[in-house]
Amino acid sequence: MEDTRVRQQGMASWLMQRVSGIFLTYALAVHLWTVHYVNADRLTWEVVAGRLQDGAYWAIYYSLFVPAVVYHAMNGLWGIVLDYDPSCVWRRVWCVVLWGAGLALVVTGYFGLKPLMG
Amino acid sequence: MVWHYFRNTLLPSVNVGTVSWLLHRVSGVALAIYLIPHFLSINSSREGPEVFDATLAVFTAPVYKAAEFLLILVVAFHAFNGVRIIVIDFFTLSHRQKLLFWLVMLACGLVLVAASFLFVPKILAPVV
Lengths: 118, 128
Prior knowledge:
The complex is a heterodimer. Chain A is mainly alpha-helical.
């Protein structure tokens, strides 16, 4: 029973790494194109806030992009941790560290974008 | 000892599979760490437009443009190789993994050329 549950969790994180990865391929292409080409040399509060407050697209985009990139990063690091087959204690330590770092990053990202969204 | 290990163990094991695995891992860890300074610099928006603009202005320096250029190549490799891994997984194309790796490298090369038009003039701005 326990084995099945652990296996299903592993399967879910494997699948979600691919799902978030495909989304991030799109989201990062948009991000890098916008920042380094469309808004290149004029990355200021005025331009960024103007873009973020222009319709619902960017609000939806960032509310998916930030959690997706943080999830992908933390889940990727978790995969590396598991590659080293750590003991039960170390597994728990890394689980707490990655969850903590992930939540801190999402909160930092949210409160960083909020003032720009008005 | 180190040279012996390098020549007899490490070097013969180098192939497309291990190189792509290692590059994917190193680029992934680097990008995960990069999220911390990136999110913190954007978080300067909480202190108002002046501080936000001053923070972003720091990153217009040529040394940061060079770092951004490298960052884009790292992102491009990780993204293209990630798609390669997904394609291998879902379409049982492991027998084509080497060809797919060179396609990833080709795509990275195209990104390198395209991005160099944007970044090289900015990196060389103080020199030219």
